[in-house]
Amino acid sequence: METVFQDRRDAAEALAEQLTTFAGRPDVTVLGLLRGGAPIAAVVARRLDVTFDVLVIRKLGLPSAPEVAFGAIGPGGVQVLNREIADQLDAGQRDRVVAAETAELLRREQLFRRGRPPLRLAGRTVVLVDDGLATGATARAAIAVSRGLGATRVVLAVPVGSAAAVADLAGEVDEMVCPVCSDDFRAVGQYYVDFHQVSDEEVAALPVGSR
Asked: N or C: which end of the chain has fewer CB within 10 A?
């Protein structure tokens, strides 16, 4: 499969072109899923001239294969499980992974919110941005968090995604935006030339809370 995007900035520019109907709207918040979605969301929000913020979602990976998600967690105790995969583990294994990822979620919340109050999404249109959609577990948790915080409209926007995951999540959001949707999807990174792991420092340097 040929790569499509040079890097996350390139992907963000392509994604922003698909979201122009939200430009300049005071009720719109673009939320970047940490960490890979944050730099893309920052560019999208700047192009659209809308509020930018970040959302901490932690993938729950299998102990034997951490890249395979059996679910995800988000702020406020939101937990979404892929039962088909989660049932491969016993309760003790699941609990240990959840405990470790919950601790990391709290650490990142403290780091990236920088003393700002929790997200306030009541009455807002939320555009959730990630760098790609593979299993959909992280995005599903982000959708649940957004709804739980009172968002009136939730849009999921990713540069590239698995056709199966896109179809699976389309019914859970008000709008799905995915410029590159593939039936032959193996990993998000295969669509980028530069797909380096986004660091805490990169996210901390972004203009979180800005418009």
From this structure: N
